[in-house]
Amino acid sequence: EAQVTQNPRYLITVTGKKLTVTCSQNMNHEYMSWYRQDPGLGLRQIYYSMNVEVTDKGDVPEGYKVSRKEKRNFPLILESPSPNQTSLYFCASSFPRGEQYFGPGTRLTVT
Amino acid sequence: SQQGEEDPQALSIQEGENATMNCSYKTSINNLQWYRQNSGRGLVHLILIRSNEREKHSGRLRVTLDTSKKSSSLLITASRAADTASYFCATEKIQGAQKLVFGQGTRLTINP
Fold first, then answer.
1. Cβ A97–B98 below 8 Å, yes or no?
2. Which of A102, A106, A107, A109 should we substitute to test contact with B (largest number of B Cβ atoms within 10 Å)?
3. Is the pLDDT reported for residue A103 higher than 90?
4. Is the pLDDT at B3 greater than 80, yes or no?
5. Which has the closest alpha carbon to B63: B40, B42, B91, B43?
6. For residue A58, which residues of chain B lie inside 8 Å, CB to CB?
C-alpha cells in the first residue's frame, strides 16, 4: 500500500530534550516536506527536500533540522525543543509538481 | 507570500444539499490543489487543477479555476455526512522551488 508513515504519532517531552520525528514513504517520491499545523494559522511549511541531499528552508524553519540521506526517509529533528513548538506535524511526499501524500500526523507537546 | 484564502471559514448544510467553497490567491500559479482533512488527521488530496485548465471533475467533486480573477471553487454535490471535514486549497508557484502554500481552510459540517 502506498503510504507515508510517521513516528511517533504522539509525543510529550520536556524543554531542551532533543527529539526526532521519522518520516518514510514507499512511493519513490523525489519531493518531501514537513509542515506544522496550528489553530488559526493553518499549515505552514518547515523544510522541504527536492531529492537526496537537497534540502531547503520553508516558511518556519527556526528550531528545526532535517536530513535526506535516503530517498524514502526525511526525519525532522528538534535539537532543543521549546513550548512554542507544541503543534501537529505532518510529513508529505510527491513527485515533482504533483499531488502531495500526507502522513497521519505527529502530535507533539513540549512542556 | 501568496496564500490561498478560503471562503467561507465555516459552512453548515443539510445532507443532500450542495456545498460550495471558494479560494482566492494573490500571484500567478502553476497549479491549485484541494485537500480534505478529517479532524486531527492527515490531509487527503482531492483534485489538482493546472493553470491552463478551467474545470475538473472527480465523482461528486467539481473544481473550477479562474486565473484572471485568481480564484477557484470546490463544489461538492449531494453532500453526505461523511463529507464533514475541513477543506483546504493550496497553491503552487509558477516558478522556483516546488512549494505548496495552504489557506486557512473551510470547516464543512453536513447535518443529517
1. yes
2. A102
3. yes
4. no
5. B91
6. 99
Give the closest-approach CA distance of A97 to chain B in angstroms. 6
Closest CA to B72 of B60, B89, B84: B89
Give the model's confidence band at B51: pLDDT under 50 very low, under 70 low, under 90 confident, else very high: very high
B99 and A58: CB-CB below 8 Å?
yes
- CB of B63 within 8 Å of a chain A CB? The answer is no
C-alpha cell at B37: 482533512
Does the pLDDT value for residue B2 go beyond 50?
no
Separation of alpha carbons A74 and A105, rounded Å: 14
Instruction: Tell how strand A87-94 and strand A106-110 pair up.
Output: antiparallel
Cell of A104: 497521519
Burial of B22 (0-12, 13-18, 19+ CB in 10 A): middle
Do the Cβ atoms of B87 and B34 come closer than 8 Å? Answer: yes
C-alpha cell at B74: 470546490
**CB neighbours of B97 closer than 8 A, spacing ≥ 6?**
A48, A50, A56
Judging contacts by C-beta atoms under 8 Å, the chain B residues touching residue A43 are 43, 88, 102
Q: Give the A:B interface size as CB pairs under 8 Å.
A: 57
